[in-house]
Write a structure and sequence with these properties.
The complex is a heterodimer of chains A (54) and B (374). Chain A is mainly alpha-helical. Chain A has one helix spanning 3-21. Chain B is mainly alpha-helical. Chain B has one domain. Chain B has helices spanning 2-34, 36-54, 60-69, 73-95, 109-124, 129-137, 141-159, 161-165, 177-197, 208-228, 235-248, 262-269, 276-294, 308-327, 332-341, 345-367. In chain B, helix 15 runs antiparallel to helix 16. The radius of gyration of chain B is 20 Å and the shape is globular. The termini of chain B are far apart. Classes of the chains: A mainly alpha (54), B mainly alpha (374). The interface between A and B is large, with 46 and 88 residues.
């Protein structure tokens, strides 16, 4: 066996996560935030590993 | 014979064209599906994966080289990248604090213990937060196996996070402004001086490849801050994928202080294509894949034959990587790289504890059957 198999499985892993998630609510690009947070005037709202739950 | 040699480059060219088209297509698809910000974040992740794999810039490997062979080049390159980010990020955070946030977290018993365990586990599988993604994308079977367990560990670490932090934590301590930047750069220089002082003879020069990688990685980390409003991180997205899967299977996360918090509960219900760290994680795996698929014979390397105990150790280490990085408020990326470069003192505590854990991890690795060579 070669890395063809394992690298392919890594890509399949990503596609699997996205595909399974696609069964839920779809994103709405028309309600997307500004392209850049910097200069948007709005606080960031993303999840981060350093943040306590809020 | 002539026809065959002429056909091979054409085939390689077509393959490489497909790789580029695939990467661009993924970015365009995410942009059209979710929005420009999210397409940019996938592109940034792809860039990080390309830099880490293409220029062989890592975290666990250089720490191992420093511990076992007193070779400081990789560690010095990390310090350079962190310094470059800090020089730009500190003023940005000072002037745009309403829009941008640093990787700020409290130092505590669980945080320090988590960093120690992470440092040991990342040396066992020779893959940190970013390294596990890069190695999995390039077809390393150990990291590929560790990755799903890293995700599961991250989910459970977040599930128990509040209990662990209640054991005792300091307030969040942050260096900021010009003084904070000067202190950060001074501390980074001090670590560099110590590393150079104990370096083995003839190993004190940083290869040009690593200097270029450090500059590119710093630029991409800053791009992440500008686009997302928060520093580069890895671990949150991994746990989120499991939380989404658990919810889809009917699990009730309302009893978890972490996963039921409004922000986290919302993200469990939203598309993964709008989650910052998920997108950069996808990109890192994809970027590493692009590099290895681009090289002739890159995917034809045979897989290593390891004893059963090595695979068992990989599963356990993967779980520990995920769980401990949640308690530590990040891995080598979210805590060490982004924490220090945005002024959080927990990044420095992570560095000390993680390096101490690495001292243990490099000695455990051969005992667990994962050691081919020193």
């Amino acid at each position: 066996m070669t890395r063809h198999l394992t690298a392919g499985l890594a890509l399949a892993f990503i596609l699997g996560v996205v595909a399974l998630d696609a069964t839920g609510a779809p994103p709405n690009p028309y309600k997307a935030p500004a392209a850049l947070a910097f200069g948007s005037g709005l606080p960031t709202s993303g999840g981060f590993c350093g943040a306590m739950p809020k | 014979m002539t026809a065959m040699t002429a056909a091979a480059p054409a085939g390689v060219g077509a393959k490489r064209g497909l790789l580029v088209l695939g990467a661009l297509g993924a970015v365009v698809a995410v942009t059209l599906t979710a929005g420009v910000r999210y397409g940019l974040l996938l592109a940034i992740g792809l860039g990080i994966g390309l830099v880490l794999e293409g220029l062989r810039f890592g975290f666990a490997g250089p720490w191992r080289a420093m511990i076992l062979r007193r070779e400081p080049a990789g560690l010095l390159a990390q310090l350079l990248a962190i310094a470059l980010v800090a020089i730009v990020a500190f003023p940005m955070l000072s002037t745009h604090g309403a829009e941008l946030s640093g990787a700020q977290a409290p130092i505590g018993f669980a945080m320090v213990g988590g960093a120690f365990v992470f440092g040991a586990a990342m040396q066992i599988v020779l893959g940190c937060g970013s390294g596990t993604l890069v190695n999995a994308g390039s077809g390393n079977p150990v990291s590929l196996l560790a990755l799903p367990f890293f995700c599961i560990g991250s989910f459970f670490g977040a599930l128990n996070l509040v209990w662990w932090t209640d054991l005792g934590s300091l307030p969040i301590l942050v260096l900021h402004g010009t003084t904070g930047l000067a202190v950060t750069l001074g501390l980074l220089a001090l670590v560099a001086v110590v590393a150079l002082a104990i370096a083995a003879p003839g190993t004190r020069r940083i290869p040009a490849r690593l200097i270029v990688a450090a500059a590119l990685l710093a630029a991409l980390a800053l791009a992440n801050l500008v686009v997302a409003g928060q520093p580069w991180g890895v671990v949150y997205g991994l746990g989120l994928w499991v939380a989404k899967g658990a919810t889809a299977l009917g699990a009730d996360l309302s009893g978890s202080a972490f996963w039921s918090a409004p922000g986290n509960a919302a993200r469990v219900g939203q598309s993964v294509l709008t989650d910052i760290t998920s997108l950069t994680n996808f990109g890192i795996i994809g970027g590493a894949f692009l590099i290895v698929a681009w090289k002739r014979g890159g995917l034809s390397q045979p897989l290593p034959k390891l004893p059963a105990r090595a695979w068992i150790a990989t599963v356990v280490a993967g779980l520990l990587l995920g769980y401990s990085s949640r308690l530590a408020f990040g891995c080598n990326v979210g805590a060490f790289f982004s924490g220090i470069s945005t002024g959080s003192l927990h990044g420095w505590a992570w560095f000390v504890a993680g390096f101490a854990g690495s001292l243990v991890g490099v000695r455990l690795r051969p005992l667990l059957g994962l050691e081919g060579r020193a």
